[in-house]
Amino acid sequence: MEADMKSKKPGRRQFLKKGAVLAGAAMGAMQSAKGQTGASDLIDGRIEGTKYVTAYGERSRFEQARSQRIHDYEKEPFPAKKLTPLQDSVGIITPSPMHFVADHYVPPDIDPSTHRLMIHGMVDRPLIFTMEDLKRLPSVSRVYFMECLANSSLNRASRKDMDSVQRAHGRTSCSEWTGVPLSVLLQQAGVQSGASWLYSEGSDGGRYSYSLPMAKAMDDVLVAYGQNGEAVRPEQGYPLRLLAPGWEGPFSVKWLRRIKVVNQPQYAKTEVTLHGYLRPDLKGKALWFQFEMPPKSVITRPSGGQKLPGPGSYEITGLAWSGGGVIRRVEVSTDGGRTWQDAALQEPVHSKAHTRFRLGWNWDGEEAVIQSRCTDERGERQPSLEEMSRRVGVGMDYWIKTSVTAFQFNPIQPWRVTREGEIHNAILDSVPGAPASLGGDGSGHTDH
Asked: What fold, for 296-425?
């Protein structure tokens, strides 16, 4: 026993000695790391002992999802255009930095302490609100999608660029918006008899303006100063923006500075020159106002540009939304539309918001076409490209031959899965004269 104890003592001393050396080395390494950390390594943060402290959280460096710029900002900084990475989304909320951007003019740099919102025109009491005035009023928070009226249009860019879900459908995002109902402000101002429209103006360089029907303004429009739990982002209208739920994006004026109550639409430049739509069924006439965005869904995973590693079980997931209210049903087909299955809707399901859907799928390794269609609470169902073409009285090749951008374009989006697991945009597969998919070299198409 004594011999055993003697044999253990040197080992214990040796262990303690090694432990001290390791501890010293660790402390030295931490001090060295602290000394070598530069401003470029820590974004708005610092090291305190062994703890990294940051004033504004950053995502992991291993996460690469980001919004996609449509053009070279160095050569052409404005108008700013960015697309939401729908293929990387989870849940229904779009992170604020990844919200799509579609600006027509240079965004202003506004000090909220000096910003004012004026309400005037056909009102009993013209009012001017500071940001503090607005934040003292009862606020609400609502989850709503926002969508560019030209989202998903086939003729916006090079056909081969439309092979990804981000490029094809990335002009939509969904956030939790916080602010004051516009109806509260209008009631304080006292809307006069005969007033039926509003004219909203932003603080950007071009004074972007848009007309809005009074009925919508008194329904669910927000004057929003919050987005996803913090202040609205500068590219989203800081410090104040209008939010017209479910309607085309242009109605949601950013950097809001003025609302004039009027008795007719004002036909601003942006309304009649940028957002008028030459509808083929109107025989050459243009619609200056379209309002509610129609029901739309898209499978985001698996989707164009992705690749399945091999046969087996996968989860098909995507997003559905409608300006008409709540999404009630999403159906998924894995055989090109011959048969359909009901997908599960992920809770919560909000009105006029992105809704996540899911369906299990066992891929057998053969070529397949996967697609989704949604139905909203009013029973309106997302059409196929053929159905939409028939509705407006054109052939399906119209959408690739015309130079007119199609607004509120919401046909079913099919994705073609090859035997190699590659996934391509197959929306034109049934169009005479079109290539097999948008994933090819674009031959046979005319870009606009």
From this structure: Immunoglobulin-like (2.60.40)
